[in-house]
Each structure stands twice: as structure tokens, then as C-alpha cells.
Amino acid sequence: MLLKDKIAIVTGGSSGLGRAIAEGFVAQGARVIVAARTPAGRDGGTPVVEAINAKTPGMAKFVACDVSRISDLEAVVAEAEGWGGLDIMVNNAGILEKEPILEATEETFQRMIDVNVKSVFFGSQIAARAMVKRKSGVIINLCSIAGMRGTGGFSHYNMTKGAVRLLTYSLADELGPMGIRVNNVNPGIMRTKMNTEDDPVIGTETGEEYLDMIPARRWGEPEDVADTCVFLASDMAKYVMGTSLVVDGGYLRI
User: Fold this and answer.
1) Helix segments in the chain, DSSP class H
2) pTM here?
3) I need a labelling partner for 165 at 20 to 30 A (CA). Which of 57, 106, 125, 144 fits?
4) What is the pLDDT of residues 151-170, one digit of tens each?
């Protein structure tokens, strides 16, 4: 029970990586607030909070949250404080919209900034304000290998994820002396809706060619990211600060 009695928030926690992180935290003893637009998410089936509480009653709760709204983020952190005090903040919510640079629109640009960058900046700020009272806490920002290497057609996404990576380093430097650890997780090609619908890779002919470039010779699973987040949130990582952990099966090899 690496996270016994801890209280965590996972934004975008109703599906994909967020769902796996929420489930992984609960399995290690944490109580989790799933902050998302809807309880059901994109994966279908039983909503994650309902599924968690069916097995371990009272270990999860859902709070409706549009992460682009600062007031919503404040409400989620207040909920965690009222539940006993926020220990772990996972800024996971994110979107991917592809546009060639010559066709890029201001609307898409702003949407990507609001969800992928603004929410992480202010989510971290609001969480840190609560954590600093106890001089302890962990903030984990979900980035991407797309924040470490540029790819044509993904300028919005590369830009926002690169911003999150550098923001993590700044926050680690500033908040570390206050007892708050901040780190960054960079997933590769994961088996989520982002890689099967938003940017179809898995299950396509082109995608199969990518497998030959991944030393692990398999796609990433949400649980691979969840396990990494459990490590970073636990005392096993008590001296890990201001770093980017790459979870990509060796694809980038850096």
C-alpha cells in the first residue's frame, strides 16, 4: 500500500490514462477524486468511480470539472481539502487536435492552450497553495514524448506539451524547498482513444510500422503510465524531483 491514506486528484480521470491512474492509486490505498467533464468518459462501460466504489466503497468520488475554468479547479481542490487534505495532484487532462500549420486556426490554438497548458499551470498553482500549508505534496504533470520532439502536423500539441515539460522544471525548482515534489511523465504511443481515434495509429497499417521502432515491440497500456505515477506519488520517489520520466517502450531511446 504505497499510497495508504493519501488523497489524490486526477484530472481527466474518467477515461484513458486518467482512469488507469485513478484505479492504480486506489489499489495502493489512496482515496481519489476524479475530476472530469462527465463520469462516464470515452471508454464506455461502468464509470470509473462507480467501478472503484463497487470494489472498495468510499475510495473515489466524481467532481464535475472543466479544467480550462480556474473556478472549477479551485472547487476540486477545495473538495480534496474537505476530504482530509490534498496530497497528490495529477494534471492529466489533455486534448489532441491536428492541423497543418498553414491551416491552423486561432480557435484550435486557444482550445489547446486552455486545456493542455492553462489547466496545468493553474491546477498546479491551486494545488500547491493547499499543499504548502502542510509542507508536503506531490504534483505530477502528464506530458508526452510529443513534448520532447517536434513532428509536422502536430505543432499545437508539440508546443503545449513542451510548455508543460518546462513548466514542470520551473515548479520543481520553486516548490521543492516548500516540500512539494513536481515531476513529469511522458507517455509514448498508448492504447487510448487519443491513439485510436484522435490520431489513429493503433490498428492502422501505418501504425503497425511503428511497432518495429519500439524496442518493447508492443503498444503502451494505460497501466504502464499508472504504475509510473504510483511510483512518483509514493515515498519510493522521495528524492525524484524536476524530472521527466519517459514511458514509451524505448521508442525515443533518450
Assistant:
1) 16-27, 48-55, 70-83, 106-113, 119-131, 155-175, 193, 205-211, 222-233
2) 0.96
3) 106
4) 999 999 999 999 999 999 99
